[in-house]
């Protein structure tokens, strides 16, 4: 594997975990807000 390929794969590898964590946090937040909006009073 060339140096460029190695750099690309390391960058993708190190970027994957924060992206997964932040994406999961955003998805849970949106789902929670939607669920709470169903339960709230419509007055």
Structure description:
Keywords: Membrane, Transmembrane, Transmembrane helix. It holds the Pfam family DUF2374. With 43 residues, the protein is mainly α. 86% of the residues lie in helices and 0% in strands. It has one helix and no strands. It has one helix at 3-39. It is rod-shaped and about 65 Å long. The termini are far apart. The relative contact order is 0.08.
Secondary structure topology:
Blueprint: H1 3-39
Keywords for this entry:
single chain, 43 residues, mainly alpha, 1 helix
| Major sheet | none
State which percent range the strand residues make up.
under 5%
Mean pLDDT: 91
Helicity, as a percent range: over 70%
Distance from first to last alpha carbon: 63 Å
Content-based structural category:
mainly alpha
Task: Evaluate the radius of gyration.
Answer: 19 Å
Shape: rod-shaped
Tally of separate helices? 1
Number of strands: 0
Helix-strand pattern: H
Low-confidence blocks of residues? none
Concise overview:
Pfam families: DUF2374. This protein has 43 residues and is mainly alpha-helical.
């Amino acid at each position: 594997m060339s140096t460029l390929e190695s750099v690309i794969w390391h960058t993708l590898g190190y970027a994957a975990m924060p992206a997964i964590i932040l994406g999961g946090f955003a998805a849970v937040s949106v789902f929670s807000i939607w669920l709470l909006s169903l339960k709230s009073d419509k007055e």
